[in-house]
Amino acid sequence: MVRDTLGDLAVFVAVADERSFTRAAARLSTSQSAVSNAMRRLEEQLGLRLLARTTRSVSPTEAGETLLATLRPALGDIRGSLEALATFRGTAAGLVRITTSRHAAETLLWPAIDAVLSRYPEIEVELSIDGALTNIVADRFDAGVRLGESVEKDMVAVRIGPDLRLAVVGSPAYFAQHPQPQTPRNLTAHRCVNLRMATRGNLYAWEFERDGQVLNVRVGGPVVVNDSAMAVNAALCGHGLACVLEDQTLLAHVAAGRLVRVLEEWCPPFAGHHLYYPDRRNHSPAFRVVLNELRTRAKR
Fold first, then answer.
1. Residue 185 in contact with residue 215, Cβ under 8 Å?
2. Across residues 241-266, what is the average pLDDT?
3. Strands (E), the chain
4. How far apart (Å, rounded) are the C-alpha atoms in residues 168 and 196?
5. Please, how many CA atoms are within 13 Å of residue 99, restricted to the half-sphere of its CB?
6. Closest among 290, 284, 288 to 83, alpha carbons compared
7. Is the CA virtual torsion 10, 11, 17, 23 positive or negative?
8. Residues 263-300: tens digit of each pLDDT
9. The whole model's pTM is what?
10. Distances (CA, A) of 285 to 66, 67, 98, 174
Protein backbone atom coordinates (compact mmCIF):
# COMPACT_ATOMS: atom_id res chain seq x y z
CA MET A 1 0.00 0.00 0.00
CA VAL A 2 2.78 2.48 0.92
CA ARG A 3 4.69 1.64 -2.26
CA ASP A 4 1.59 2.21 -4.40
CA THR A 5 0.86 5.49 -2.62
CA LEU A 6 4.38 6.81 -3.20
CA GLY A 7 4.09 5.98 -6.88
CA ASP A 8 0.69 7.65 -7.10
CA LEU A 9 2.05 10.77 -5.41
CA ALA A 10 4.78 11.01 -8.05
CA VAL A 11 2.09 10.70 -10.74
CA PHE A 12 0.10 13.50 -9.06
CA VAL A 13 3.11 15.84 -9.15
CA ALA A 14 3.67 15.05 -12.84
CA VAL A 15 0.03 15.80 -13.71
CA ALA A 16 0.09 19.02 -11.68
CA ASP A 17 3.33 20.15 -13.34
CA GLU A 18 2.19 19.32 -16.86
CA ARG A 19 -1.47 20.35 -16.36
CA SER A 20 -2.32 17.39 -18.58
CA PHE A 21 -2.83 13.64 -18.16
CA THR A 22 -1.43 13.06 -21.66
CA ARG A 23 1.77 15.04 -21.10
CA ALA A 24 2.22 13.51 -17.65
CA ALA A 25 1.96 10.03 -19.18
CA ALA A 26 4.60 10.93 -21.77
CA ARG A 27 6.88 12.33 -19.07
CA LEU A 28 6.51 9.18 -16.99
CA SER A 29 6.76 6.86 -20.02
CA THR A 30 3.44 5.22 -19.20
CA SER A 31 -0.11 5.20 -20.55
CA GLN A 32 -2.77 7.85 -19.98
CA SER A 33 -5.05 5.21 -18.47
CA ALA A 34 -2.35 4.28 -15.93
CA VAL A 35 -2.07 7.94 -14.93
CA SER A 36 -5.85 8.26 -14.61
CA ASN A 37 -6.03 5.10 -12.49
CA ALA A 38 -3.25 6.33 -10.20
CA MET A 39 -5.05 9.64 -9.63
CA ARG A 40 -8.35 7.86 -8.97
CA ARG A 41 -6.69 5.58 -6.35
CA LEU A 42 -4.97 8.49 -4.63
CA GLU A 43 -8.07 10.67 -4.42
CA GLU A 44 -10.16 7.76 -3.15
CA GLN A 45 -7.56 6.90 -0.52
CA LEU A 46 -7.34 10.50 0.72
CA GLY A 47 -11.05 11.18 0.34
CA LEU A 48 -10.20 14.48 -1.34
CA ARG A 49 -10.27 15.85 -4.85
CA LEU A 50 -6.73 16.91 -5.72
CA LEU A 51 -7.28 17.96 -9.33
CA ALA A 52 -9.94 20.10 -10.96
CA ARG A 53 -10.64 18.69 -14.41
CA THR A 54 -12.31 20.36 -17.39
CA THR A 55 -12.48 19.33 -21.02
CA ARG A 56 -9.49 21.59 -21.77
CA SER A 57 -7.36 21.73 -18.65
CA VAL A 58 -6.29 20.12 -15.40
CA SER A 59 -5.27 22.16 -12.35
CA PRO A 60 -4.67 21.45 -8.64
CA THR A 61 -7.45 22.16 -6.18
CA GLU A 62 -6.74 24.01 -2.93
CA ALA A 63 -6.11 20.65 -1.25
CA GLY A 64 -3.89 19.66 -4.17
CA GLU A 65 -1.82 22.85 -3.87
CA THR A 66 -1.35 22.19 -0.15
CA LEU A 67 -0.09 18.68 -0.87
CA LEU A 68 2.20 19.92 -3.67
CA ALA A 69 3.86 22.40 -1.31
CA THR A 70 5.16 19.43 0.68
CA LEU A 71 5.71 16.97 -2.15
CA ARG A 72 7.82 19.11 -4.51
CA PRO A 73 10.70 19.86 -2.10
CA ALA A 74 10.53 16.31 -0.70
CA LEU A 75 10.83 14.77 -4.15
CA GLY A 76 13.63 17.22 -4.94
CA ASP A 77 15.52 16.00 -1.87
CA ILE A 78 14.98 12.38 -2.92
CA ARG A 79 16.23 13.13 -6.43
CA GLY A 80 19.30 14.83 -4.98
CA SER A 81 19.99 11.85 -2.71
CA LEU A 82 19.72 9.42 -5.62
CA GLU A 83 22.01 11.50 -7.78
CA ALA A 84 24.46 11.76 -4.87
CA LEU A 85 25.00 8.01 -5.22
CA ALA A 86 27.06 8.88 -8.29
CA THR A 87 29.92 9.68 -5.92
CA PHE A 88 30.28 5.93 -5.35
CA ARG A 89 31.08 5.63 -9.07
CA GLY A 90 33.84 8.18 -8.62
CA THR A 91 32.29 10.86 -10.84
CA ALA A 92 29.52 13.46 -10.89
CA ALA A 93 26.56 12.76 -13.14
CA GLY A 94 22.99 13.87 -13.75
CA LEU A 95 20.94 16.77 -15.05
CA VAL A 96 21.22 20.38 -13.84
CA ARG A 97 18.38 22.75 -14.86
CA ILE A 98 18.89 26.53 -14.58
CA THR A 99 16.57 29.39 -15.55
CA THR A 100 18.37 32.59 -16.46
CA SER A 101 18.37 35.79 -18.46
CA ARG A 102 20.14 35.84 -21.82
CA HIS A 103 22.78 38.29 -20.57
CA ALA A 104 23.76 36.06 -17.63
CA ALA A 105 23.70 32.95 -19.81
CA GLU A 106 26.04 34.42 -22.39
CA THR A 107 28.46 36.26 -20.10
CA LEU A 108 28.64 34.02 -17.01
CA LEU A 109 26.86 30.69 -17.20
CA TRP A 110 27.97 29.37 -20.58
CA PRO A 111 31.75 29.78 -20.00
CA ALA A 112 31.40 27.90 -16.69
CA ILE A 113 29.15 25.20 -18.14
CA ASP A 114 31.46 24.73 -21.12
CA ALA A 115 34.30 24.00 -18.71
CA VAL A 116 32.17 21.64 -16.59
CA LEU A 117 30.94 19.62 -19.57
CA SER A 118 34.50 19.21 -20.82
CA ARG A 119 35.59 17.70 -17.51
CA TYR A 120 32.46 15.75 -16.56
CA PRO A 121 30.97 13.92 -19.58
CA GLU A 122 28.14 12.43 -17.49
CA ILE A 123 26.75 15.83 -16.45
CA GLU A 124 23.89 17.30 -18.49
CA VAL A 125 22.81 20.94 -18.32
CA GLU A 126 19.55 22.54 -19.41
CA LEU A 127 19.47 26.34 -19.67
CA SER A 128 16.07 28.03 -19.92
CA ILE A 129 16.49 31.59 -21.24
CA ASP A 130 13.69 33.59 -19.68
CA GLY A 131 13.60 37.12 -18.29
CA ALA A 132 10.68 36.36 -15.96
CA LEU A 133 11.13 35.54 -12.27
CA THR A 134 10.45 31.82 -12.52
CA ASN A 135 9.30 29.76 -9.53
CA ILE A 136 12.22 27.35 -9.61
CA VAL A 137 10.67 24.89 -7.15
CA ALA A 138 7.33 24.62 -8.94
CA ASP A 139 9.00 24.40 -12.36
CA ARG A 140 11.59 21.86 -11.18
CA PHE A 141 14.71 23.97 -11.77
CA ASP A 142 17.81 23.41 -9.66
CA ALA A 143 18.62 27.12 -9.67
CA GLY A 144 17.86 30.49 -11.21
CA VAL A 145 19.84 33.65 -11.92
CA ARG A 146 18.69 37.20 -11.23
CA LEU A 147 20.22 40.61 -10.61
CA GLY A 148 20.91 41.73 -7.06
CA GLU A 149 20.64 39.90 -3.80
CA SER A 150 16.85 39.81 -3.47
CA VAL A 151 15.69 36.21 -3.38
CA GLU A 152 12.60 34.38 -2.22
CA LYS A 153 12.16 32.79 1.19
CA ASP A 154 14.17 29.62 1.80
CA MET A 155 16.56 30.44 -1.05
CA VAL A 156 20.33 30.78 -0.98
CA ALA A 157 21.94 33.50 -3.14
CA VAL A 158 25.52 33.21 -4.43
CA ARG A 159 27.13 36.07 -6.30
CA ILE A 160 28.50 34.81 -9.62
CA GLY A 161 29.39 38.04 -11.41
CA PRO A 162 30.85 41.52 -10.93
CA ASP A 163 28.98 44.77 -10.40
CA LEU A 164 27.10 45.95 -13.46
CA ARG A 165 26.16 49.33 -14.92
CA LEU A 166 23.48 50.55 -17.25
CA ALA A 167 24.46 52.41 -20.40
CA VAL A 168 22.44 54.83 -22.52
CA VAL A 169 23.58 54.77 -26.14
CA GLY A 170 22.61 56.10 -29.55
CA SER A 171 24.11 56.03 -33.03
CA PRO A 172 26.18 58.89 -34.51
CA ALA A 173 23.46 59.26 -37.17
CA TYR A 174 20.85 59.78 -34.45
CA PHE A 175 22.93 62.41 -32.65
CA ALA A 176 23.55 64.19 -35.95
CA GLN A 177 19.87 65.11 -35.81
CA HIS A 178 19.30 65.32 -32.05
CA PRO A 179 21.29 67.00 -29.24
CA GLN A 180 22.82 64.75 -26.61
CA PRO A 181 20.76 64.65 -23.38
CA GLN A 182 22.48 66.41 -20.51
CA THR A 183 20.24 65.02 -17.75
CA PRO A 184 17.83 62.07 -17.63
CA ARG A 185 14.90 64.51 -17.77
CA ASN A 186 15.96 65.46 -21.32
CA LEU A 187 15.10 61.92 -22.44
CA THR A 188 11.40 62.76 -22.63
CA ALA A 189 12.22 64.85 -25.73
CA HIS A 190 14.08 61.96 -27.42
CA ARG A 191 13.07 58.93 -29.45
CA CYS A 192 13.89 55.91 -27.29
CA VAL A 193 13.76 52.13 -27.59
CA ASN A 194 11.42 50.80 -24.92
CA LEU A 195 12.00 47.48 -23.19
CA ARG A 196 8.98 45.45 -22.07
CA MET A 197 9.66 43.62 -18.81
CA ALA A 198 8.97 39.90 -18.76
CA THR A 199 8.11 39.96 -15.06
CA ARG A 200 5.03 42.20 -15.27
CA GLY A 201 4.62 43.05 -18.93
CA ASN A 202 5.18 46.74 -18.18
CA LEU A 203 7.54 49.02 -20.06
CA TYR A 204 10.81 49.52 -18.18
CA ALA A 205 11.25 52.92 -16.55
CA TRP A 206 14.90 53.90 -17.09
CA GLU A 207 16.69 54.15 -13.74
CA PHE A 208 19.32 56.76 -12.90
CA GLU A 209 21.19 57.96 -9.82
CA ARG A 210 23.71 60.72 -9.14
CA ASP A 211 24.90 62.19 -5.85
CA GLY A 212 22.05 60.49 -4.00
CA GLN A 213 19.40 61.75 -6.45
CA VAL A 214 17.35 58.92 -7.95
CA LEU A 215 15.35 59.42 -11.14
CA ASN A 216 13.07 56.97 -12.97
CA VAL A 217 12.17 58.18 -16.45
CA ARG A 218 9.37 56.90 -18.67
CA VAL A 219 10.46 57.23 -22.29
CA GLY A 220 8.69 57.03 -25.64
CA GLY A 221 9.71 56.05 -29.13
CA PRO A 222 9.04 54.03 -32.25
CA VAL A 223 10.26 50.62 -31.05
CA VAL A 224 9.31 48.28 -28.18
CA VAL A 225 11.25 45.03 -27.63
CA ASN A 226 11.58 42.45 -24.87
CA ASP A 227 15.25 41.63 -25.49
CA SER A 228 18.20 43.94 -24.79
CA ALA A 229 20.17 42.70 -27.82
CA MET A 230 17.31 43.86 -30.06
CA ALA A 231 17.32 47.21 -28.27
CA VAL A 232 20.99 47.61 -29.16
CA ASN A 233 20.24 46.68 -32.78
CA ALA A 234 17.54 49.34 -32.94
CA ALA A 235 19.96 51.93 -31.56
CA LEU A 236 22.64 50.89 -34.07
CA CYS A 237 20.12 51.48 -36.86
CA GLY A 238 19.47 55.01 -35.61
CA HIS A 239 15.90 54.49 -34.41
CA GLY A 240 16.51 55.99 -30.98
CA LEU A 241 18.37 55.74 -27.69
CA ALA A 242 18.64 52.44 -25.81
CA CYS A 243 19.26 51.78 -22.12
CA VAL A 244 20.88 48.38 -21.61
CA LEU A 245 23.39 46.58 -19.43
CA GLU A 246 27.01 47.50 -20.07
CA ASP A 247 28.94 44.51 -21.42
CA GLN A 248 31.88 43.76 -23.71
CA THR A 249 29.74 43.75 -26.86
CA LEU A 250 28.26 47.14 -26.07
CA LEU A 251 31.64 48.61 -25.15
CA ALA A 252 33.06 47.32 -28.44
CA HIS A 253 30.34 49.20 -30.34
CA VAL A 254 31.18 52.37 -28.39
CA ALA A 255 34.96 51.94 -28.91
CA ALA A 256 34.43 51.45 -32.66
CA GLY A 257 32.28 54.57 -32.88
CA ARG A 258 29.15 52.69 -33.90
CA LEU A 259 27.40 53.91 -30.73
CA VAL A 260 27.82 57.03 -28.60
CA ARG A 261 27.37 56.74 -24.83
CA VAL A 262 25.60 59.51 -22.88
CA LEU A 263 24.56 60.19 -19.28
CA GLU A 264 27.36 57.95 -18.02
CA GLU A 265 27.69 59.93 -14.78
CA TRP A 266 24.06 59.02 -14.01
CA CYS A 267 24.71 55.26 -14.23
CA PRO A 268 26.51 54.04 -11.06
CA PRO A 269 27.43 50.36 -10.48
CA PHE A 270 24.93 48.02 -8.85
CA ALA A 271 24.96 44.43 -7.59
CA GLY A 272 25.41 41.96 -10.45
CA HIS A 273 24.09 38.48 -11.17
CA HIS A 274 23.38 36.00 -8.37
CA LEU A 275 22.61 32.30 -8.56
CA TYR A 276 19.74 31.35 -6.23
CA TYR A 277 18.57 27.90 -5.22
CA PRO A 278 16.53 26.13 -2.49
CA ASP A 279 18.11 25.99 0.95
CA ARG A 280 18.30 22.23 1.37
CA ARG A 281 21.15 19.80 1.96
CA ASN A 282 20.68 17.14 -0.67
CA HIS A 283 21.90 18.89 -3.79
CA SER A 284 23.16 16.56 -6.49
CA PRO A 285 26.91 16.19 -7.14
CA ALA A 286 26.32 17.57 -10.65
CA PHE A 287 24.75 20.74 -9.24
CA ARG A 288 27.57 21.15 -6.73
CA VAL A 289 30.13 20.88 -9.55
CA VAL A 290 28.38 23.66 -11.51
CA LEU A 291 28.00 25.80 -8.38
CA ASN A 292 31.68 25.42 -7.44
CA GLU A 293 32.76 26.33 -10.98
CA LEU A 294 30.67 29.51 -10.88
CA ARG A 295 31.99 30.41 -7.41
CA THR A 296 35.60 29.88 -8.52
CA ARG A 297 35.16 32.07 -11.60
CA ALA A 298 33.48 34.80 -9.57
CA LYS A 299 36.60 35.09 -7.38
CA ARG A 300 38.98 35.64 -10.30
1. yes
2. 96
3. 51-53, 58-60, 94-100, 123-129, 143-147, 155-159, 166-170, 191-195, 206-210, 213-217, 220-225, 242-245, 260-262, 273-278
4. 16
5. 17
6. 284
7. positive
8. 999 999 998 999 998 876 668 889 999 999 999 999 87
9. 0.68
10. 30, 28, 15, 52
